[in-house]
Amino acid sequence: MNTSAYAAAGVDIEAGDRAVELMKASVARSRRPEVLGGLGGFAGFFDASALKEFRNPVLATSTDGVGTKVAIAQAMDKHDTIGFDLIGMLVDDLVVVGAEPLFVTDYIATGKVVPERIAAIVGGIADACVAAGCSLVGGETAEHPGLLGPDEYDIAGATTGVVEKDEILGSHRIVAGDVVVGMASSGLHSNGYSLVRHVLLEQAGWALDRDVAELGRTLGEELLEPTKVYALDVLDLIGRTEVHAFSHVTGGGLVNNLARVIPDGHKAVLRRDSWTPGPIFQLVQQVGALSQADVDATLNMGVGMVAVLPAESVDTALAALTERGIGSWVLGEIQSSDGEGSAELV
What strand order describes the sheet that includes 100-110? Predict the structure, then answer.
């Protein structure tokens, strides 16, 4: 049997083709009616005539990755949930401005294409797209022998959404007296894993299969808990009541991310006693002997998304989120200040 020069160099074109065949059914599950064609082309197609229904459509776009959480998936050889982390990082940055996510493209770089592993990754991405109401319209799988180990990979993606220009949410809508509502995270989501891995795996020497009583499961199961995708919950909330702004709590923690949408002359005052972070956050802090400032500035501390809305919208918002299974509570309020927009925990 002849081996091509490219295969001899470590790139298996046939394995890539098999991976595409295995992922086709998963991708089809995420298909919206505006999507044209199928996998295998040079570009994905989305019928933009659907935007004619908008008065003044504005496209929103976001790109992101998963970070070092992929190392946990690789170590546990479980690859069908990491896609939720990718989609969560992508689409929930769109919905905070009021945009409906339309489609996603992904990129997977790996040391060796194992078709079943690639199909599992893409299957998770497609399932998360379904949960977000958008379509996976294409992507790329690249084999990088010599740069990545045979079992190593990294994933990234990009997404596009649409919002009416006069319905864009953000700091320009926030006023003093607005209420800040917190929405519970499903865990660490996809941020701070370099710190978490350093503290628990490297410094403490804990194994991923270690049963941790505080967590009620193994450490690996906790660390691989998928990111909560809030897209449809946020869009539902926008449709039910007036909302001025959202903040997606990712890298940098609650205060830093919320401050991004607070206008000058205002501050968000958040009550630390209004919620109790989950056990994983306390565990990382205690085992690592970390300061409160360190964990606050790195981890979401149990708050994955934040809404800023008028006081008269609060009861409707809390009821709507409860109906959709989202833990929520009054986290704080917006006050006038003399400086730049800011947020603080008190």
Answer: 57-65, 153-164, 100-110, 135-143
